[in-house]
Design brief:
heterodimer; A: mainly alpha; 2 domains; about 80% helix; elongated; B: about 130 residues; alpha/beta; Transcription Regulator spoIIAA; five-stranded mixed sheet; 4 helices; about 30% strand; globular
Chain lengths: ~375, ~130
């Protein structure tokens, strides 16, 4: 058997180990595994445009940004930054295009968390192939002694970093996908979205379309930025900062996945949507009140009102979003809220507290 | 600006230290008038810091916006804290629907007639 083939085969098996571990973790928490396998395979193919680009640049070096930088700019750090931004842009654009394509074709994503998880699967596919080439390269150039540490580092940290970049993009893609309801909820809660409104006017977009596009771009820029920082630190051999960077990123990703809002199914089956039993104008008043009280951080009241309103209009996604965001904010702020509550007691009146006081008074009167 | 009239009249009290008032709402409470008109009720609360008994006659109140619901909650909180009481009479079904979903009907009793509301206000009677 050809030794190059054997080396690639062993590299493939080594690269498969971290991918398989992560896939098992993700599969435990998700459904539609068949589509995810497809997504993983498509992720592996997403290296093709990047290799094609490198191949093209080998033949036409005049288009190479690396050559251009080396010839024109003496500051090596600056060159690295620009180079890694370019690499980050290419890799992240390819990965996000893949997610968008598959989601449009198969309507894969129903929740923000699914958007994150499926982005992770695509990133694993990409990382798997990238790892094969790196393992092969290190093995053949530096020998098997150097391979062990490099393999461990790539399996744990580089794979994790790829998951982080794509996961964060997936989060923003999820928000963008459900922009209609999410924008409505956030505007009700007092957010103005001035930039999106400006874009909508300039490009003649609907507000929702402007919100969607800017959210996707925001996610992409963050993913590219993180990718560039990671590559830059790695290039400078800053291993400890890289490890801290990846651990923090992983923590952020876990926090995002824990959000109640992320688990909310935001796709409505039009054939099975139940009609509201409340008059539209009356419901609008209550939803406005939800926005007002959400802004004032009266989360307990918001949750109670949402529960009552959802009995009347169970498929209202904006109300569902208010409820889950209030729950998220309560759990996120619980410690800070207690401290702040002691320092600055709330002056506004909360219905839930008043109901508790009334119930207590009624019980005492009965006794 | 949408029209809203709030007229306040005294109701004879059953005990000496009570201030019993009937506030009659006519029109629509919306963004254009709610801040201004809410001052009438805040004025009553200020004038009667203790034992204020308020009967809101909502028979001719066509609409109340979210801010108005917020004010109603605030009035209830202030009055209940000062050993007073609020009841609502003759509210239209749309207003009642909003108050019920918000949870205010758990705090403020509502009555279909003015007489029942007056009686409940002055004697601790269970809501309908």
């Amino acid at each position: 058997m050809d030794s190059t083939f054997t080396l690639y085969l062993v590299s493939g098996l080594l690269a498969l180990a971290p991918a398989a571990i992560w896939l098992t973790v993700i599969f435990k928490k998700t459904k539609r595994h068949g589509l995810q396998v497809l997504l993983f395979l498509a992720g592996t193919l997403s290296v093709i445009p990047i290799f094609a680009m490198q191949y093209f640049l080998n033949f036409f070096p005049q288009f190479s940004i690396v050559n251009f930088l080396q010839e024109n700019i003496n500051d090596q750090n600056f060159n690295f930054i620009v180079l890694f931004i370019c690499v980050g842009i290419t890799e992240e654009i390819v990965k996000q295009a893949l997610i968008r394509f598959i989601d449009k074709r198969y309507l894969l994503i129903e929740t923000i968390n699914e958007s994150i998880q499926f982005s992770l699967v695509a990133a694993l596919g990409f990382s798997f192939i990238e790892n094969i080439f790196y393992i092969y390269h290190i093995w053949t150039n530096l020998g098997i002694q150097q391979l062990f540490i490099a393999y461990l580092f790539r399996s744990i940290f580089t794979t994790c970093a790829h998951l982080m970049f794509s996961g964060i993009f997936g989060y923003y893609y999820g928000i963008a996908k459900f922009s209609l309801n999410i924008r409505e909820q956030s505007e009700m809660a007092g957010k103005k979205h001035h930039f999106q409104r400006f874009l909508a006017r300039v490009f003649n977009y609907s507000k929702s379309q402007a919100f969607k596009e800017t959210t996707i771009l925001k996610g992409l820029f963050i993913a590219i930025g993180l990718h560039a920082i990671f590559d830059f630190l790695l290039q400078l051999n800053q291993i400890i900062p890289v490890v801290i960077f990846v651990v923090i990123g992983y923590g952020i990703l876990r926090l995002l996945l824990k959000q109640k809002t992320g688990r909310l199914v935001l796709i409505n089956d039009i054939d099975n949507v139940r009609e509201s039993s409340m008059a539209k104008t009356d419901e609008e008043v209550v939803v406005e009140l939800l926005g007002m009280w959400f802004k004032e951080k009266k989360y307990v009241d918001v949750i109670h009102i949402c529960e009552r309103l959802l009995e009347r209009d169970p498929d209202n996604k904006v109300v569902q979003l208010f409820k889950s965001k209030a729950i998220d904010n309560m759990s996120n702020n619980s410690i800070y809220a207690k401290i702040l509550g002691t320092m600055f007691p709330a002056k506004s009146i909360s219905i839930s507290k008043l109901i508790k006081v009334k119930e207590k008074d009624t019980k005492e009167e009965k006794l | 600006m949408t029209e809203i009239n709030i007229t306040v009249e005294d109701i004879p009290a059953t005990t000496q230290n009570q201030a019993v008032k009937l506030a009659k709402f006519q029109g629509q409470l919306d963004e254009s008038n709610v801040d201004e008109k809410s001052k009438i009720i805040y004025g009553l609360i200020e004038q009667n810091p203790k034992n204020l008994y308020l009967l809101f006659d909502f028979e001719e109140l066509e609409y109340m916006n979210s801010k108005a619901v917020g004010y109603l909650t605030d009035w209830y909180g202030k009055i209940a804290e000062a050993q007073g009481k609020i009841v609502i009479a003759k509210a239209k079904s749309n207003i009642l629907d909003i108050l019920q979903v918000v949870g205010l009907t758990q705090l403020i009793n509502t009555y279909p007639t003015l007489d029942e509301a007056k009686f409940a206000l002055l004697h601790d009677v269970a809501a309908h």
